[in-house]
Design brief:
The complex is a heterodimer.
Chain A (H helix, E strand, L loop, with lengths): L9 E2 L1 H7 L5 E7 L4 H4 L6 E4 L15 H10 L7 E5 L1 H16 L5 E4 L2 H7 L30 H10 L2 E5 L3 H5 L22 E2 L15 H11 L7 E5 L5 H12 L5 E4 L2 H5 L10
Parallel strand pairs in A: 1-5, 2-3, 2-4, 4-5, 6-7, 6-8, 8-9
Helix pairs in contact in A: 4-9
Chain B lengths: L1 H5 L26 E3 L11 E5 L9 H14 L8 E5 L3 H12 L4 E6 L4 H9 L3 E5 L12 H12 L4 E2 L7 H18 L6 E5 L4 H13 L4 E7 L27 E5 L1 H15 L5 H17 L4 E5 L7 H7 L12
Helix pairs in contact in B: 2-3, 2-6, 6-7, 8-9
The chains are: A alpha/beta, B alpha/beta.
């Protein structure tokens, strides 16, 4: 059985349980449901709120370098730490966090495979409500690596030129335009459909029954053999607000080893609101 | 003394009870069966509604709640320091909270935001603390349900404070219906029941009733009625949502009818206005399923398990039947 291209970026729940008290290990939980961390979390884990801590609160953007440094410094995370990220909904926002850590150049960041759900379902894993005490420090980030991020002009050009694989990871109903967003979502768009030329590969295609990632062979068979997404061509993944696409970005870049793959975090809530942008249904 | 004075008049036959718990349903004290008259003109296939809102805490969930709570008491797993945490769309939570608080235990209910406001307020009136969680973002089979996960988290992180009955996995949910609902139906119909119509939520009712009645008569048809996907009928699950419950056993069901969930609301209104039954939306859906089978099968004796009444659903009714909101304020 083939291995992931970068097996070092995945750790199991058992590994985390064994190593969570090791020096230099920092556990960070990032959930869609922002109540989940407070109700109970892995002992020693810090909780990040994706809505208030990972995004600029004024303009629509990721936090900038200084904000990222302040956030990690305030949690006592240093540049040399091994950061283990995990969360609910099969690591959607944990993957978004992973993408952010890589944008700011953190070397050793990993995802706990299966995320919060797997930990919760395993009887030998403990949960606590006490938050860990942290010693504040100084974190120095790199300048943002924009090669991991697609902004609108690049997406428009890629679609027009057919130069990239565009991977739409939303549900089939969002892709087809039958719905603009999953029911009840406040972030939405004026129009439904997808970016012309995009291939529909819902994010959950990458996930096994227990919430962990499928094997390298299975992923290769789905993305490369069935869907024809080859690593020879540049790739951009998008969804609705950029978190599910982070999950697929992670799969393509780290598990399958695609060299040039970007996350379009503006995603459909940006694209589907544009005047005169081409849309396919 | 109060007890001595009250003692002589306690008589269950006269419906004078020592406590509310004596009113819980059983083979000797069944919830009523009421025949459908104007909405079913088939003389060969009468339909009877089993009015579960006549249970003391207002719904079919009294049965599972009582069975689950009694087991925790018997095992010594609940106390004044260690109360309940339970994922619920409202009815189980209300029954559990009323029972638990009356017996001196705390109760925390984890509910999805989409349940009607009436149910949230009722839970608080019953003395439950509430966790309200965001509704499913993008439902994924196998991912688990948000309410169940949060309740499990609390029970795991604070074992000293919470015990989780978990109606979605607790076999006592099935046992309750094996012990009560099944025998009640058999006795009330003198064993003549041919079809049972019910809805699917935790699947405790269908599993317990089916196991009991099929033992008595393997030919009895168990018909489950489910709303179409995207529904907002509280307490019910579409087939795509059923992996959230471990009590679902398809071998115990003869047929699953999928019915447009909007029909739940129009049929509930008709049941109120034509039959005098204050039936909630899930009853409306079940009735529609039964009506279709009556048309197809022509002969039989059907029992519909009507889970709860309309009173908690006025807001849902007004949302789906907007004319109900007309003329509710003075003319301008």
């Amino acid at each position: 059985m083939a291995e992931f291209t970068h097996p070092e970026v995945i750790v199991s729940t058992d590994w985390v349980n064994e190593h969570r008290n090791d020096p230099g290990i920092k556990l960070i939980e990032i959930d869609v449901d922002t109540q989940a961390y407070d109700a109970g979390h892995v002992p020693g884990a810090i909780g990040f709120n994706w809505q208030t801590q990972l995004q600029n609160q004024v303009r629509r953007d990721i936090i900038n370098k200084q904000e990222f440094e302040e956030l990690l410094g305030s949690c006592g995370v240093s540049r040399d730490d091994t950061v283990i990220l995990f969360g609910d909904n099969n690591n959607w926002f944990a993957a978004y966090g992973f993408w952010l850590f890589k944008i700011y150049g953190h070397d050793d960041v990993r995802l706990m495979d299966g995320g919060r759900q797997k930990w919760l379902d395993e009887d030998d894993k403990e949960l606590v409500v006490e938050k860990p005490s942290v010693t504040q420090g100084e974190y120095v980030a790199s300048e943002p690596d924009n090669s991991l991020r697609a902004l609108l002009p690049e997406v428009l050009n890629a679609s027009a030129a057919g130069s990239h694989h565009l991977v739409d990871v939303r549900s089939p109903d969002e892709y087809s335009g039958k719905v603009i967003a999953p029911p009840g979502m406040s972030e939405t768009a004026q129009r439904g459909g997808h970016i012309p030329g995009a291939t529909s590969i819902p994010w959950l295609t990458a996930v096994a029954e227990d919430g962990s990632f499928k094997t390298a062979d299975e992923l290769r068979s789905i993305y490369i053999d069935e869907k024809g997404i080859g690593s020879a061509k540049r790739t951009i993944a998008y969804c609705r607000i950029g978190e599910r696409s982070s999950h697929t970005w992670f799969v393509l870049k780290y598990l399958l080893g695609f060299e040039d793959v970007k996350n379009y975090d503006g995603s459909w809530t940006e694209y589907g609101n544009l005047i005169a942008a081409p849309i396919e249904k | 003394m109060k007890t001595t004075e009250a003692q002589p008049i306690i008589d269950r036959k006269k419906k004078v009870f020592e406590s509310i718990f004596e009113m819980l349903p059983s083979e000797d004290n069944p919830s009523p069966l009421v025949r459908i008259n104007r909405m079913n003109d088939s003389s060969g296939f009468p339909l009877f509604a089993k009015l579960e809102w006549m249970n003391p805490f207002g719904s079919v969930k009294d049965r599972a709640a009582w069975e689950m709570l009694r087991e925790l008491e018997e095992k010594g797993e609940i106390s004044s320091e260690r109360g309940l945490v339970e994922p619920t769309s409202g009815n189980t939570g209300f029954s559990l909270a009323m029972m638990a608080r009356t017996r001196g235990y705390s109760m925390r209910a984890v509910v999805p935001n989409k349940i009607p406001l009436e149910k949230k307020i009722l839970l608080k009136i019953a003395g439950a603390e509430l966790d309200v969680i965001n509704d499913e973002l993008c439902p994924v089979p196998g991912l688990g349900d948000g309410s169940i996960n949060l309740a499990k988290t609390r029970a795991k992180a604070e074992r000293h404070r919470y015990v989780l009955p978990n109606q979605y996995e607790n076999e006592n949910n099935v046992a309750a219906h094996l012990k009560t609902t099944g025998p009640e139906i058999w006795r009330q119909t003198d064993g003549r029941v041919t079809h049972v119509f019910l809805s699917l939520g935790t699947c405790g009712t269908v599993s317990g009733v089916s196991r009991y009645l099929r033992e008595k008569n393997p030919d009895i048809k168990i018909i489950a009625v489910q709303p179409t996907e995207g529904h907002d009928v509280p307490g019910l699950r579409n087939i795509s949502q059923l992996p959230a419950t471990k009590l679902f056993d398809p071998s115990l069901i003869d047929e699953i009818l999928e019915i447009d969930f909007e029909v739940a609301y129009t049929r509930a209104l008709e049941l109120c206005q034509k039959e005098g039954l204050s039936a909630g939306p899930s009853c409306g859906l079940i009735f529609e399923g039964a009506r279709r089978i009556v048309e197809a099968d022509k002969e039989g004796l059907g029992v519909m398990i009507f889970p709860d009444s309309i009173f908690k659903y006025t807001a849902n009714m007004a949302k789906h039947l907007p004319f109900l909101s007309e003329n509710t304020t003075p003319p301008q």
